[in-house]
Predict the 3D structure of the following.
Amino acid sequence: MIGALRDLDRILRGDATQIERLREASLDVSVRRLAGLLVALGGIYGVCMGSYAVFRHNEADYPYYWQLLSTTLKVPALFLLTLAVTFPSLYVFNALVGSRLTLLPVLRLLVASLGVNLAVLASLGPIVAFFGVSTTSYPFMVLLNVAVFTVAGVLGLLFLLQTLHRLSLAESKNAAAKSDAAQGIVMAEDANLPTRPTVLELGALDRTHDHVLGEHVKKVFWCWIVVFALVGAQMGWVLRPFIGDPSGPFVWFRERQGNFFESVWQTLITLLSGG
């Protein structure tokens, strides 16, 4: 677990995604260690999300502990199942647009992106738990959790975009270096010529200056964001309930009807109308 926390810290600080480090070893993080940490972070947010059920059910015999356990298990399952369902198509899209990333680097990139996503979720968990304890409005709690998931998802996607771009730049620099070596071009350091100034290290979400996003980076990113967002949203709908409706009995899963977007719209209308 300590190694996983170190990997996540390197990802969040941007140490693991510096261009020079990516040139040496792509994205040097352990998928196995990070996967275990993702489950733990998801479980932490699940406990905070399920706190509403502990304090807001009117029935004295309501099994709130089952709702708490259910949410704790479902939040990490939501992300891992979404990754499992979308990974084959994401890898194929990546290959079709000409990216040189192979299977394992793509998996590392996606798991690292989920690490950012779940780290943000877990950090916002205490705020969700606070409102879960202090409010009685079920529609408000639903929309609050949708907002928190959206913020975490956007930050995870920004990390994904910037890391894709840096990986592309690292590949380009490695290709240029190999070409120069093949042609016998002497590097500036070997020829005692002035060297370039030291490049400042970038944060995980910082844009790489003086470099325009490559066309294949844009294509991969937009394919991934559409597929992952749609599948993730519907996966959450399939695994519901997460919060636990105080007006009904506890169930592990609800009947399949409607979709995520329709439900959010109806919940917003209910909240604004004072329901």
Observations:
- The first helix runs from residue 2 to 13.
- The radius of gyration is 22 Å.
- The chain has one domain: 2-179+200-272.
